[in-house]
């Protein structure tokens, strides 16, 4: 009896979704704006593999509308990583739940473990009256520690500097990309952990504030080799873009496909 339990069957018909093979090769920013910059969209990014969505990072108020503009009217993300719990990054989760539940789709939700209790409370009143299910039958909650696997690749997750300690996180696929999420400058991470030539997507505005990195701070705190790999986002508008261009810092624009190779 025990043998039959522990022996791996030679031919298993897996009921799971077959993993995509391949390594992500591009990133599509759906929005690049700060929380109040509506025309630039809420900051959210789709990591893609051969032009197909691989992982969505954050889901703000307008993210699903922009996602459909990019990938088609019937498209919903299958997997989402959440950097932190500000509404410009999670305001679209309720809408995603409704659309996924009503179309019979599940969505894998990668959430840093430190955020789970608060996210649970924020979604406590979300549900469909006609279903004898809760949202966690549709959202497949995947607790994230320092590392996790997605589509057979190992990603790392580090706390960053955005308001309360331990409340905001970055995402790193070594050799491909680092995504800061909302943060102040983080030289200790970029210099010690992000060392394989990856593109570095980084929160930045022309003038920093207690929640977000300023351009002058990045120029002061990061060495030229790091500055050359930056692609900044989460900004307010034309004045920021002008400052980035004057400083020679690359910036992301809405609906822009950026190569990771
Ligand atoms: Zn934000
Ligand atoms: Zn934030």
Automatic annotation (TrEMBL):
Compositionally biased region (Polar residues): 9-22
Domain Metallo-beta-lactamase, residue spans: 41-234
Chain intervals for the UniProt region annotation (Disordered): 1-22
Annotated InterPro entries: Metallo-B-lactamas, RibonucZ/Hydroxyglut_hydro
SMART domains named among the record's database cross-references: Lactamase_B
Name this polypeptide is given: MBL fold metallo-hydrolase
